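Late entry, evening session. Most of the bench is empty. Finally got around to the prediction I had been postponing all week. Sequence below, unchanged from the version circulated by S.P.
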Amino acid sequence: MKYGPVAIARCSSYQNSVVDGAVLRCLELLGGIDRYIKPGMKVLLKCNLLSRRRPDEGVTVHPTVVEALVKAIQSVGAEPIIADSPGGLYTERVLKGIYRVCGMEEVHERTGAVLNYDTGAIEVSYPNGKMAKKMTVIKVLQDVDLVISVAKLKTHELTMFTGAVKNLFGVIPGMTKAEYHLRMRQLNDFSDLLIDICEFVKPVLSVMDGIEGMEGNGPSAGDVRHIGALLMSPNPYALDVVSASLVGIPVERVCTIRSAENLGLCSSRLNDIQIVGEPFDQLRINDFKMPDASQNGFLVRVMESNGRIAEFLKRYLRPYPMIMYDRCVGCGDCARYCPPKVISMMEGKPRIDLNNCIRCYCCQELCPHKAVEIRRNWFFMLFK
């Protein structure tokens, strides 16, 4: 059985004409946009807009990719709506700042695409869910006909890789994300939750902005890396497998891919996925930097298992967040958005209670100044 298809287009820059061509090429390879979207439909572009970061920082989806998708949707007489519920507060004021800094306001001005400012939330039922039979999602989901997941190709300290599936965690509103982190403290459980969310949303297409990605300590504190590829698929799981493989991320260690494979939603083997378009090997990268928190695969796998040894490692030897005070400006975002509330502000600077830290790394993910680093225990260094 072949999963996919996954379309790959070479895309050398964020110049509008270049990105437009890459988006149209991928859509053609997948049978054309009218195969997925019909006139009059409202289409939610769920973009990775993690925080107020400029497009050139490589943290969020680039606006030219979003603009190209908007124009493609409009070409068939459908209405695109741009939305995300980023980390932290989910308010109109926060959204305005994110849309402005991330370049979405300019997309709106040039194309007329709607920017979602409805910060309401609804509870939905998902009886087939493994971890969430019910979930709280952003209200705009009930007002659209289809969803397209627009992700950024990045590493991730917690999940190794963040892509089309992890991107949909952004349909969980604001601080409700913190509640989910607290309820699903084990990585495997959190991964299963992400699959539940993805299966509930069922994006009609998923798009990967791999023109400029992020390596190292992503999803926000890593380094921008040119990849030069745009990828697209109706199967978000297959898209994540191909995207991660393209930059050498070991897919067997990506928790969402493992969970999806266990459920028969995809295969982690490239031979089981139909890849169309640009030859895969011509764009492959072999020296992509991995997150510090996941450098030792053996110990990570032990910690993700059960048993007394695993519990000991989880309690005492897991990678941990550390504040880099030379970069910290004392904004308090890490304390404000910490799910278990184990970060306190003392004399204008954050202090982390590591004994009660759940290692979700939200502090690192949401720090606007890259002032939180994930450090490994000395024991990990013995196995490098």
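Two things to note before I forget:
The mean pLDDT is 92.
Residues 187-201 form the longest helix (15 residues).
Will write this up properly tomorrow.
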